[in-house]
Amino acid sequence: MFVPSVGLATASRLLREAEEALQDEQNDSALAYADKAAACYGRLPKDPESPGLVDCQRARFQAMAQMGERKRALKLSKEELDACLTANDTRGEAIMRLCIAETVLEKMGSKHRKEAIPNATKAAHIFRDLEDDRLEAMSLLVMANAHLKRSTAAMDATKDSQLAIDFAKDALDLNRSLQDRRQEGLALHTISVGYLHLQEFRQAIQLCKQAIKIYQEIGARKLEAFERRVLARWHLRKDEPDQALEAAEKSLHMFRELEQSRSVTGWQVAALGVVVEAYLAGKDFDAAIEAINSEMKLFEARGCKSSQASAQDMLREALLAKGDFEAAKEAAERSVVLAKDVDKRMEAELLLQRAPLLGLAADANKAEESIREAVEIFKDLGAEKDRANALTMLAELHLAKNEDVDALKCAQDAEQGHRKAGNTRGQAMAYLSAGEVHQCCGRIQEAETAFNESLAMCREGGDRKGEADSLTALSKLYGESGQGIKAAEAADSALLLHRELGRKQWLLEALLSTARSKVAACKEHEENGAESAEIEKEVLSALDMAREAVGMSRRMNDAQSLIFCQHTEVEVLVAMNQFDEAMDVLKEAVALSQEQQLLREEGRLTSDVAQVYICQKNWKMATHCANKAMEMAEAAGNPALGTVVVQKRRKMQQRCISLQV
């Protein structure tokens, strides 16, 4: 005999078990529990304000989505929503709207993702009216995560990031009142991400640590491992590689200990990626390679090709950072072969990673084939934004091959693709690419128009990084076309933006670019008859910037960056006629390049030494150093440096002829 009270208790327990299985991504178990719960609810009188069949449907559809059947889950959710609307089932409507929002939030592209916010918002309002705090909190958290997703695609992330924080804080308050510790931790995580998007690293890290503490207390080891990986990423963003490594290694160790389902293996790969990033940030290349090879053995033992492909791609990055180009190229090839059998999107992404290595190996045709193959895969997948990004990369390759017509066509196709995908940021970057093509072809006016179009779009959208990139492009254009003053003004504006953004590598590059632009501006000021005090102020400003960059690179402990910064410092000192001081800087830089066995850098510096001797009219030493630099350029396979040295030698030959006459 069926007893309703017992049946309700059984149904509630089974639904709860289905939800717990979903949390652990045990999708087959979740489906089984949901089916059993539905059978129990089907024998009970319908209560429009209590859990029932529609809750079981949500659990089913969530399991389908997590198993990769997102399109089917979305279709069935919408059909169920229509049925609820027809039956005037308000609670059922809210459940299905929440389900739709959860489904479209991940791995369905920006077109479907747009449905998340309106559906989650409507669900939250209904649950509030029904006084269902638990489901209202879930809806608010989905709203917050949808705004975070939107912020990553927006040109100005501020508005969506702040909205995400506000909604997640509302969810946090509800979960604390419900004493739901797991959901409290998830809300803290979401708030942490929002603060990171706002560049407020300290708050992001503190909230992340609070979430970790909660997961430790409730024994949620998978969530704890996930959050430790997040903490490591936040430390990397704050340029704290040691703290990042500690958190990332704990995360990797925990994921390794968890039962090795497919989803856990995926997170193990992600944790390994952060471990590798931390080692590379600390310049410990061998430790990064050792960590990758250690995990690779586990992935091979499990026969997980997607994990192996990801690890091979990490190995490519580590080997490239170490300077082992050939080994990096081999790792890139292996990653593509592994991905072919398991994941087309991954294959396309790895093809794009392989292309630059082929280009560096002077195999530009194979590099082009690699990018074109990726373009076609993205086209087949309907991933218009990714296809447009790949076309921009193809435009850059054509430009490097002096194929200007093809380069411009690819840049224009990329712009149209981004416009079709509604990706304004991508459109702006495509205009930048088109401008570079025009610039290389000597079409100065067309290049300036394209760069200004990109600048206007970035300013309108509040994309400060894009604005800085556009200003830098304009500065280089003005510099190459002999407009030194305009070049310096654009570079100054870009530098100001980079100081606000606070990313060290971007700031370093901006300092060097601005220093060089100011030197060119000084020459133009001098030609225009400017006051000597004004010129001196400009050149001293250039020297300050070059030396600030040198100081930054010393603190970063990056030999190649330091040498490049010292090269710029020498340029400024030569412009100031401070030849002895320039030679002192060069002696230190040459010694460092020899110590680190950086032949290309040593060749460039030797060319700089020749330039100083030219300025001092020491033709004998200038010729000796120029010849030595040419030999180094040939040995290092650096034709660009060879061209520069040839120009310097011709200059010296002409000078010697004029002296003989």
TrEMBL record:
What would be one Pfam family of this protein? TPR_12
Which InterPro entries does the annotation name? TPR-like_helical_dom_sf (IPR011990), TPR_rpt (IPR019734)
Entry keyword ATP-binding? no
Q: Which residues form a coiled coil?
A: 8-35
Q: Which domain of life is it from?
A: Eukaryota
* Key words of the record: Coiled coil
Q: What is this protein called?
A: G-protein-signaling modulator 2
